[in-house]
Design a protein that fits this description.
Layout: H1 4-32, E1 38-46, E2 49-59, E3 67-70, H2 77-90, E4 95-99, H3 115-124, E5 135-139, E6 146-147, H4 152-164, H5 168-184, H6 191-202, H7 206-213, H8 218-233, E7 253-254, E8 257-258, E9 260-264, H9 272-289, E10 301-306, H10 309-313, H11 317-329, E11 335-341, H12 349-352, E12 357-360, H13 368-378, H14 389-395, E13 400-404, E14 416-420, H15 432-440, H16 443-448, H17 457-475, H18 489-526
Parallel strand pairs: 3-11, 3-12, 4-9, 4-10, 5-6, 5-9, 10-11
Antiparallel strand pairs: 1-2, 1-14, 7-8, 12-13, 13-14
Helix pairs in contact: 4-5, 6-8, 6-17, 9-11, 13-14
Length: about 525
C-alpha cells in the first residue's frame, strides 16, 4: 500500500530535483557563452551525479590567459594536464610539457578503450577514440631526446645575475664582464667561459679593467665564481652551450595536429635552481622572439609547468619579479602558461591573479593546517549557489575537479564540479624501446644533438696568457730574478743574506726607538 503523503513527498522531491538540474544546466550554459571553437574538459556534477547536457568547455580564444591545475597527490592532476594537451593538439595547437615525474610520455601512444573509460565518456557525452599524437621528447640533461641548450651570452647580464642571486656590487661585476667581452670579441658560450673571464679580470687583466671600468673587487669575483660552481653542481654545464635551441621549433604541427614537446626533467627534481633557471630562460626567449599577436581565435603555443612549486619556492625575489613580469606580458605573444601544483597557495598572488582557467582537484584535510589551507583555497574560486566549495574540495573523487574558466567576453564562468574526461592516449609511460624508436625518428635530434665546442672566451684567454708568459721569458734581462721563475742556490744565498742584514737593521732601529722614547719620556716627566 502506497500512502498518499509519501507518494506526493516522493513526487515533490523528483520535481524539485528536476527543476534543480534544469537550473544547474541553464546556469552553466548561460555563463559559458560559447560561440567560437572550444575544448570539452568534462561534464558537470550535481548532488554526486554527472549531468548530461552540462558539458564544461573552455574557448580556445581564452587559453592565452594562462591557467592552474591544482590538487593533492593522486587526485588526477597529471591526467587533466594530459587531457588539455591532447585537446589542444587535436585543434592544431602545439604545447610544451615540463615532465618532472616522467609520466607524460604515453601521449605518443593510443589509450585503451576499457569499459570504465567508455562508460565515463558516455556520461560526459563524448565519443572515446583512442589515438596517438605527435610527440617530441626533449631534455636539458642526459635524458634521451632533443638536447636543449642556450649560451651565457643569450642569457645576458641581468638574467645571469638574477639566477645567481647576486647583490648590486656583484651585478656590476657581471655587467663589466659582459661589456668587456663585447668590446674584446670574447664569446661567452658556457659557464667555463664566464669563470675564465672573471678570473682574468681579477688577476692578469686587472689593470686594463680598472682603466676602463674602475676597480673590480677580488672578493666579489670569488663570490660569483663560487655561485657559478654551485650552479654547475646541479648540472647546468649540460644546459649552457651550443647549439642553441630555436624556440620557433616548438611551434610545429604534423598532419594537422599540434606537436607536443615533452621536456623530460626526471633527473633534476632535486635541482630546483637549475629547473627555475631553465624555465625562466625559456619564457624569456619566447617572449623576446615571438612577435606580438594580440587577441587571436586560438593561442600560438601553450606551456605546462608540472611541480610548479619548485619554481616559486626556491627562486630569489628578483627571479620571482622577472617571472611575474613575463607571465603578465607573454599573453600578447599568443602564449598560455599553465602551472600544475598541489595548492593554489604555491603560486604567488600576483601570478595567481593572472590565471584565467582554474582546475582544482581534491584536497585532503588531515591536519588543522590543512583545514585552514582548504578554507583559503576555497576563497580563490567564485561563489556557487549549487556548492559549498570547502566541502566539495575534500569530497571529490579521483578524476573530478572544480573548474572555472573565462568565457569569450573574459568573464569567469560559473564554478562547476566536473567529471573530467579520460585521456585518449596511453595513461602509462613508454617502454625504453618505444622511447628509442621515437628519438631515432626525430628530425630535431639530428639538428641539435651535436656537441659543438668552438673557440670562445676560455680558449682565447688561455692563448693570450700563454703568449704573455712567452714574451715575459724572452724580455727578462740576464741576472734579473723573474717573479714566477725558480731561484738558483746562489740567488737564494744572496736573498737570505740580505734578509738577515735587513732584519739586523730593523732590530737596531727598534732598540734605538725604544731607548729614545725612554729618554724623552724621562725628560718630559722631569719638566
Amino acid at each position: 500500500m502506497i500512502y498518499p503523503s509519501l507518494f506526493f513527498r516522493s513526487l515533490g522531491d523528483q520535481i524539485f530535483a528536476m527543476n534543480r538540474k534544469e537550473k544547474f544546466i541553464s546556469h552553466l550554459v548561460e555563463g559559458q557563452l560559447y560561440k567560437k571553437d572550444s575544448i570539452i574538459l568534462g561534464t558537470g556534477i550535481l548532488d554526486g551525479e554527472p549531468i548530461s547536457g552540462a558539458q564544461i568547455k573552455v574557448p580556445l580564444k581564452t587559453l592565452n590567459r594562462h591557467g592552474l591545475i591544482a590538487g593533492a597527490t593522486g587526485t588526477g592532476k597529471t591526467k587533466t594536464l594530459q587531457v588539455i594537451a591532447e585537446q589542444l593538439s587535436l585543434k592544431g595547437i602545439p604545447s610544451v610539457l615540463m615532465d618532472l615525474k616522467g609520466d607524460l610520455s604515453g601521449l605518443a601512444q593510443p589509450g585503451d578503450a576499457t569499459d570504465f573509460i567508455l562508460k565515463r565518456s558516455e556520461q560526459i557525452g563524448v565519443t572515446y577514440e583512442p589515438m596517438d599524437l605527435p610527440v617530441e621528447l626533449m631534455s636539458i640533461s642526459n635524458e634521451k631526446g632533443v638536447r636543449l641548450k642556450a649560451t651565457v651570452s643569450e642569457f645576458g647580464p641581468v638574467l645571469i645575475s638574477q639566477i645567481l642571486d647576486l647583490n648590486d656590487t656583484q651585478r656590476g661585476v657581471i655587467a663589466v664582464v659582459f661589456r668587456y667581452c663585447d668590446t674584446q670579441h670574447l664569446p661567452l658560450v658556457d659557464l667555463k667561459d664566464l669563470k675564465k673571464v672573471l678570473q682574468y679580470i681579477s688577476n692578469e687583466g686587472k689593470e686594463d679593467i680598472s682603466k676602463e671600468y674602475g676597480q673590480v673587487s677580488s672578493a666579489s669575483v670569488n663570490t660569483i665564481i663560487r655561485k657559478i660552481i654551485e650552479l654547475e653542481q646541479e648540472g647546468a654545464e649540460l644546459f649552457f652551450g651550443e647549439k642553441s635551441f630555436d624556440v620557433e621549433d616548438f611551434v610545429r604541427s604534423k598532419y594537422g595536429r599540434g606537436v607536443i614537446s615533452i621536456i623530460r626533467l626526471t633527473d633534476i627534481q632535486s635541482k630546483p635552481k637549475l629547473f627555475s633557471t631553465f624555465m625562466l630562460s625559456l619564457l624569456s626567449e619566447i617572449y623576446e622572439t615571438f612577435p606580438e599577436q594580440g587577441d587571436e581565435d586560438k593561442p600560438k603555443l601553450c606551456l605546462f609547468i608540472d611541480e610548479a612549486h619548485l619554481v616559486f619556492s626556491n627562486a630569489s625575489k628578483d627571479l620571482l619579479e622577472k617571472i611575474e613580469a613575463i607571465i603578465k606580458l607573454i599573453r600578447s605573444k599568443g602564449v598560455g602558461v599553465f602551472f600544475c601544483t598541489q595548492t593554489p597557495t604555491d603560486v604567488p598572488d600576483s601570478v595567481l591573479g593572472q590565471l584565467g582557467l582554474k582546475v582544482q582537484h581534491a584536497l585532503r584535510a588531515f591536519t588543522a593546517k590543512d583545514r585552514k589551507s582548504i578554507t583559503k583555497t576555497a576563497e580563490n574560486y567564485p561563489d556557487s549557489p549549487f556548492y559549498n566549495t570547502s566541502e566539495v574540495l575534500t569530497s571529490m573523487g579521483i578524476g573530478e575537479a572544480l573548474i572555472t574558466a573565462l568565457n569569450e567576453k573574459g568573464i569567469p564562468t560559473p564554478l562547476a564540479q566536473t567529471l573530467v574526461r579520460a585521456p585518449i592516449t596511453r595513461m602509462g609511460i613508454l617502454s625504453e624501446n618505444e622511447i628509442d624508436n621515437l628519438v631515432a625518428s626525430s628530425d630535431l635530434v639530428k639538428k641539435y644533438n651535436e656537441d659543438i665546442d668552438r673557440e670562445s672566451a676560455f680558449e682565447i684567454l688561455e692563448k693570450k696568457l700563454e703568449r704573455i708568459e712567452r714574451e715575459q721569458k724572452i724580455e727578462t734581462p740576464s741576472g734579473h730574478i723573474p717573479r714566477t721563475g725558480r731561484r738558483s742556490k746562489q740567488d737564494e744565498s744572496l736573498i737570505e743574506e740580505l734578509s738577515k742584514n735587513t732584519m739586523v737593521r730593523q732590530i737596531g732601529r727598534t732598540i734605538f726607538r725604544e731607548l729614545t722614547r725612554g729618554i724623552l719620556g724621562s725628560f718630559t716627566k722631569r719638566r
